[in-house]
Amino acid sequence: MSDLTELTIREAAKLLRLHSFSAAELVTAHINLIERIDSRVKAFLRFTPELWEKQAEAADARISSGDMGPLVGIPMAVKDVLCVRGVETTAGSQILRGFRPPYTGTAASRLFDAGAVMLGVTNCDEFAMGSSTENSGYHPTHNPWSLDRVPGGSSGGSAAAVASGEAMIALGTDTGGSIRQPAALCGVVGMKPTYGRVSRYGLIAFASSLDQIGPFTRSVEDAAIVLDAMAGHDPLDATSSNRPNDVLRDLEAGVKGMKLGVPREYYDVEGMEPVVKAAIDKAIKNFRDAGAEIIDVTLPHTDYGLAAYYIIAPAECSSNLARFDGVRYGMSEVDAQNVTEAYMRTRRRGFGTEVRRRVMLGTYALSSGYYDAYYLKAQKVRTLIKRDFDLAFEKCDAIISATSPTVAFPIGSKTQDPLSMYLCDVLTLGGNLAGLPGISVPCGMSEDLLPIGLQIMAPQWREDVALRVGRAYEVASGVKAEVAPFV
Amino acid sequence: MPLSRDEVRHVAMLARLGLEPGDEEFYAEQLSGILEHIDRLQQLNTDDIPPTAQVVEVANTLREDVPRPGLSQAEALANAPVAVDGFFRVPSIQEEA
Lengths: 487, 97
Hints:
The structure holds 2 protein chains of 2 kinds.
Chain A: H1 9-17, H2 23-41, E1 44-47, H3 49-64, E2 75-79, H4 106-113, E3 117-122, H5 156-163, E4 169-174, H6 180-186, E5 189-192, E6 212-217, H7 220-230, E7 259-263, H8 264-267, H9 274-289, E8 293-297, H10 302-320, H11 339-350, H12 353-366, H13 372-395, E9 398-402, H14 418-422, H15 429-434, E10 438-445, E11 451-457, H16 463-477
Parallel strand pairs in A: 2-3, 2-4, 7-8, 7-9
Antiparallel strand pairs in A: 1-3, 4-6, 5-6, 5-10, 9-11, 10-11
Helix pairs in contact in A: 5-6, 7-16, 9-16, 10-12, 10-13
Chain B: H1 5-14, H2 23-38, H3 73-77, E1 83-84, E2 87-88
Antiparallel strand pairs in B: 1-2
Helix pairs in contact in B: 1-2
């Protein structure tokens, strides 16, 4: 029954209640597929049989007792930056090899409580720094639609797992586009909620003013279901919010009468591939036909976004990653002569090239004599970028654009030129700087079957708007996330 | 502005990142390239613009200061590369006099 690995949450939840199959059988179908194809996709770093056996059994018991929760028995993959008690969690880094967290983070914990079944830990760029998953300290992940191409990143393993049918849902994190961009490149739905919507307790921090946890799914409704289950205030994360947002209520309300803004700076961004632009043009037509009003908006500081981001994110990472010193966990050069030498050797050996590059860049930007010129300047430009969005949202309900200017690129094609890799996130990182919710939904394929993503951004705390527009696109276009075919 | 090899050594020391042969040239070249892009920020006049450190209104979240269970000593030490007598062990932090 290979089609068990192509279901959405809604479909699976219904069939589980009809006893078409059990939660245990649903998990087995996913494990069988993983065994058949993950040696080629390499979405996972490690598996958690001790969890899936227990959780599937518990799920079957809940279903027997009449529990109608949509996530009961749903197979889930978790990015290697989210702590799960007792499960090796390494942030894709050698420096954390062997680390087993003594607690489970809130997002995963809430999904476990909702009945999700954890299959394993997915690959990512080291400490979530990258746009291709090639910076993993373990191995690259391959795009299920074309194995010689990247899945995007940093949550590339999670995107590839959902795109290949290995997992029904997956968790990722998005600091500059790390959910939305791999979702686009793998042809699945990926959502970054508003900064503060989902508790980050138990997330290995990269850039604390930007990081946010979100879902990968194969439908917009599924994304809403997963978000709904993990959102909300958590006393263990002081940045988490209790603002209400019913993401499921108006999901099917459509876009008739809505104003959708197309920022010209995003529409004509440098490096935009014609095939992506054509797909966005078609999506705009779909929206128009569905009754939305399409209006031009402008985000005049777009050209400065990447520069501001590559000060702010490395500065915060250089501070967050100071804790990896070989004393309390992970790799350690314990035979050093003194503690400074131990720190320096541990960090040189444990961190990969991109992480070291960003720690250096961030340390430089925060160092005496450069703070005002770089860090403070970037924070002021962040204000300008946020104001651009505030003004745009005075004119429209949501902003639509491509998620990534390109389709998935060949493995190895950008690794020598950091700036070309950074440019992958040029359409997504503004959403992080401004704290906005954004979703990427599949919007067609190139001629050689490489997925294209449509990004919908909404004002802060309006995930419901982003999801409603995304759902309206699915309906209007008839385009849905498909599972990549494997022989 | 390009980064010199001396600056690379200084920043690496601040970040407690060891340098291996070839690293100084590598970082000097790569970071200079990235900083060249970042220098476009200087084109913007931001004299009257306040900085943004974070983007939501949540601020000064307080809670009652009541004791609650935390990790046990054994749990806290479980991942330690070297633990001795309930402590994390580190190499010497002071040279002998």
